[in-house]
Amino acid sequence: MSVMETLNTRRTYRRFAQKPVSQDVVDDMVEALRLSSCGANRQAVKLVVVQNPEMVKKVHPLVKWAAYLPPEQGAPKADEQPVMYLAVVQDSSIPGDLNTDTGIALANITLAAWAKGVGSCIMGAINKPALSELLGIAAPEKLAFMVALGYPTHAARVVPMTEKTGIKYYLDENGDYCVPKRSVEELARTV
To answer: If DSSP codes are grouped into helix, strand and coil, which group holds residue 184?
Structure first.
């Protein structure tokens, strides 16, 4: 798969097969974080890998799904939930622009997973205090995002953004995700 094909198909996935993510994928995601560009090479973004099935079950109620969809459509059912999570942590004792570094790291991590067929959902609507306690994240580290992961059981595709769709993703008749995107002409101009 070319880089552009990977970027086109690496969408957010919210329903997963109940099959463990292979260790080589986990290793690739950690390596993708390690190789991420970051300001002044500070390397202040870290991960907590949540693979233990009991811990994964404890994380499930502490994250929220698909704000644009009704809960019965957006939240995975018991047999569709992620099989692992990554807690993306920022070390606030290291100065710099942690948000930019975190964004770059998230892109690298999710692309590394998708290169091996593992779908992801970057989650910001999370119970940070409860998750931090559960995962042993304490100052100066702070939880920034959770990433849900697994082998997707649905498709997701880019569709043109129209006045009717707006920016909100939606499910098609097959239950697959349609993600409206602005046109190239709306996003870039040459001077």
So the answer is: helix
What per-residue confidence (pLDDT) applies to 129?
Answer: 98
Strands 84-91 and 45-50: antiparallel
Q: Residue 18: which residues within 8 A CB-CB, separation 6 or more?
A: 79, 81, 83, 150
Distance CA 181, CA 41 (A): 32
Using the Cα atoms of residue 33, residue 119, residue 74 and residue 169 in order, give the sign of their dihedral.
Answer: positive
Q: Cα(48)–Cα(87) distance, rounded to whole angstroms?
A: 5
Beta-carbon contacts of residue 39 (< 8 Å; ≥ 6 apart): 96, 97, 100, 101
- 66-89 pLDDT per residue, tens: 989 988 888 999 999 999 999 999
Q: Judging by DSSP bridges, how do beta strands 156-160 and 141-150 pair with one another?
A: unpaired
Mapped onto helix, strand or coil, the DSSP state of residue 157 is strand
Number of CB atoms found within 10 A of residue 23's CB: 9
pLDDT in tens, 35-51: 999 999 999 999 999 99
Q: What is the pLDDT of residues 133-148, one digit of tens each?
A: 999 999 999 999 999 9
